[in-house]
Design brief:
Layout (H helix, E strand, L loop, with lengths): L4 H25 L7 E2 L5 E2 L1 H16 L19 H21 L1 H9 L2
Antiparallel strand pairs: 1-2
Length: 114
């Protein structure tokens, strides 16, 4: 089934927001010399974070509940493998508060679930 234009925009915005969070996490936790890859959002990341970014983008692309869900945490249908879910949670715990300073609009939209 193809996305409605509204759902397609939401899907793209969610992929970009998660990618920005991963880039913030990488910048704060991994050495600058290790950031040799590019995240979906265009920011430099290390290979491990690039892998997480690609995984998160793929899972978001395949999410069947994008049109009705408020957040992945509240969804009954978990798209992420348990170990990847824990990794993304760690990223969000670190990057969430920092998103307000670096990407305020994306942070507020993410918090509101829009």
């Amino acid at each position: 089934m193809e996305d409605t234009p509204k759902t397609a925009r939401r899907r793209e915005r969610e992929k970009r927001t998660v990618s920005q969070m991963i880039a913030l996490y990488c910048a704060g936790n991994h050495d600058a010399s290790a950031r040799t890859e590019r995240a979906l959002c265009g920011e430099p990341v290390c290979p491990a974070c690039a892998e997480l970014d690609a995984y998160a983008a793929l899972r978001t692309e395949r999410c069947r509940k994008m049109d009705v869900k408020t957040s992945c945490d509240e969804c009954e249908n978990h798209c992420y493998k348990p170990e990847m879910r824990e990794h993304v949670r760690a990223v969000m715990r670190y990057a969430g508060p920092r998103m307000l300073a670096k990407h305020p609009v994306a942070a507020i939209r993410h918090l509101l679930g829009k």
